[in-house]
Structure formats: C-alpha cells, structure tokens
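Q: Give me the 3D complex with adenosine-5'-triphosphate.
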Amino acid sequence: MPNVTTQQHFRVPHALSLLIAHNKRAQALKFLDKLIGSDYGIFGADSQILNDRQAALQFKIDLLLEWNRYSEALAWLCLETEINPNNVYAQALKERLKRSLHIDDLHRRQFEPVRSGRKCAADGGAFNWEGVAGMRELKLTLENDIIMPFLEPDIYNKYRVPLPNGILFYGPPGCGKTFIARKLATILNYNFIELKPSDLASIYVHGTQGKIGDIFREAGGEQQTILFFDEIDAFIPSREQGIGHHYSAEVNEFLVQMNECAKRGVMVIGATNYLSHVDGAVKRPGRFDKKIYIGTPDLEARVEAIKLYMKDRPQEKIEYFSILSDKDLYSYADLELVVNEAARKALRYREPVTREYLEAAFGAISASITKQMITEMSKE
Ligand SMILES: Nc1ncnc2c1ncn2[C@@H]1O[C@H](COP(=O)(O)OP(=O)(O)OP(=O)(O)O)[C@@H](O)[C@H]1O
Ligand SMILES: [Mg+2]
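A: Here is the predicted complex, encoded as structure tokens.
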C-alpha cells in the first residue's frame, strides 16, 4: 500500500493574500516561487520544509488554474507528481487537465477550460464555484477530498483512498456552512436532502428510532445523496455534557446508520456553531471523517462577496479595499444585509449606490460576530 499523500494545508501569508486580492498576479507568483524555492526537489531536507514547499506549490497550481493558465498549471503538476508520486490529488488533477487540454489528442487541440472563472466546462458543471465568494482554502479542500475522488474514481480506487463518510462544518453563524453544503450537492449533482431541527419532532418521538433508519435508507437509493443535517447538535446532542440524555436511543441509532454510509451512496454533512455540542462519538473516523471550520470571510473574500452582491445594481465605481479592510467581524450574511440596505437608501433618492451609501449602511448595521464568538466557535 503506497504511502498516499493528499493536499497539504497551506496557510496563505497575509502579504500574499493582499497581492492576490489586488490582482497583482506576477508578484503573487513570484512570492510563491520564493516559498517553493529553486531547490524544491532536493530530498533529505527537513520534512516540515518539504511539506510547506509542497503546499505552496499546490497553491500556486490552484492559482494558475483559477487564472486560466492551464498549460503552466499542468507543467507544475507534472513536476509535483514527479517529485511526489503518491500525491493522489495531483495525479487526478493532472489526468483531468491533460484530458481537458486534449494533450492526448493533438487533432482536437481546442481548449476546454478545466476551471474558467471557477467554472468547469469540460464535464458539465463540476468545479463551478460561481456565486461562492472567497473560501479559497475550503474550495481546495472540497475539490481535493470530495469532488476529485468523485470525478476521478479510478485513480482514487487505485490508491484505495475512500470518499469521506461525513463532513462536519462548524463555525460562527452566517459564514456559509449551509450555503456551501448546498453548493457542493449542485456541483456533484447529488441528490440533496436537508433536515432541520424543526423536522426533529417527527423523527425523534421517543421509541421511534426506526425513522432515523428510514431516512438513511431512503437516502441510499439509486442516486448518490447528500444528507444534510443543519444544526446537527439538535439531532445528536453531546451526551457527555448531559444535553442529550433524553435522546440516547436515537443518538445510538444515528451512529449505527452513519457507519460507513458512503459505501451505500450516502454522504452525510452536518453543520453546527459549536463542535462541542455534538456528541463525541459521531466525530470518530468512519462517521464524520472530516471536520472543517468555516470562519468569517477574510479581506479578499469580503471584497469578492461585496462585488457579487453589488452585481447588476446601479453603482459608481467603488474602491472596496479601504471600506472593507477593518470589517473582519462581518459575516457573509451581514455583508449581504449591508449591500441591501445601501441599495435601498440609494433607491429612495434614485441614485446609484456609492461609497457613501455603503459606508452609511456599515454605520447602521454592526457586525453580528464578536471575537469571543470566534474563540468559542473555532474550538475543536
Ligand atoms: N462564500 C459565499 N459567497 C457568497 N455568499 C455567501 C457565501 N457564504 C455565505 N453566503 C451568504 O450568506 C448567507 C448565510 O450563509 P449560511 O446560511 O450558509 O450561513 P451558516 O454558516 O449556515 O449560518 P448558521 O450558523 O446561522 O446556520 C447565505 O444565504 C449566502 O447568501
Ligand atoms: Mg446554516
């Protein structure tokens, strides 16, 4: 069994994220090149350094794809797979890119983008992150761990890297947990079944654990399904904290159903504000194998989000960076509210939305998230 590696986690340095946000592409790539270093391939170096370099290289490839520079991305992918043959994600992406660029078919050398403006024309909609601002790292993780195994099952099977059974999104409100779960289902073209705490009464009437089984069985039909439990702490509350002792039988049934449900074509996604409120047993591997923190949008994400929300509204040219630089406690939901408010005011005077309207709206709508919430809600 090869020692399979997947994508390394890359913490984007602040200086780099500013370059990207300002669209200074050449400088951003140069910055990354420094991190990657010209001696990237020298083995025997400290393993942490190698990991960091690999992560930087993968990040560079992702940027090149995003900027439609496919041939360069492919060249770097070839290098990565050469250096690190066990990087299954890079292998899969390389194959996919080769196919999209028709590298194996020189007669049909027309370029079908793998990811144009985060759109994938090649295979009907995959990688279509349109309408999803920011979340750069999250998109990469989902592409790497979920979307790519789905699109390139042969390579993943060969390496015996399974699809995750379940993913748990956690973090402060309004930052995109529900939004991204729905988006993922669209991208994968999975069925999507959403359960909210308001459905709880009908499922968890004591002594009717059978209903939980029914839900999973129904999901595990012909088509692959994402079973999404919003506010999952209501369904499987932490028994350690004594919150969920009324539901013991139901929680147990839930755990049984979750075991290896991916093999039955069901991927479970749960969302919660507090990871500690969810029963510890579901967090074990084989149930929720992945736990992903979704936090407040960074500056780059805020700019992207505001531009998205401003789209198609009458507006003056606005320089967003200075307005948004100190808004790091605003969630996506808050930003959307601010833009709606600014537009409403502008409409009243039949004027385009200007910087002044936006600033006034920011004055009227304060951030819904506090530093303390972030501290509490980011706890693993
Ligand atoms: N990446 C994004 N790009 C653009 N808009 C986004 C993004 N993420 C979230 N939004 C917007 O913010 C709104 C709130 O997001 P969502 O409902 O997913 O938050 P949540 O994390 O599930 O919050 P809660 O914890 O309250 O359930 C969404 O309806 C969507 O319009
Ligand atoms: Mg939600």
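A quick observation: The domain at 166-295 is CATH 3.40.50.300 (Rossmann fold).
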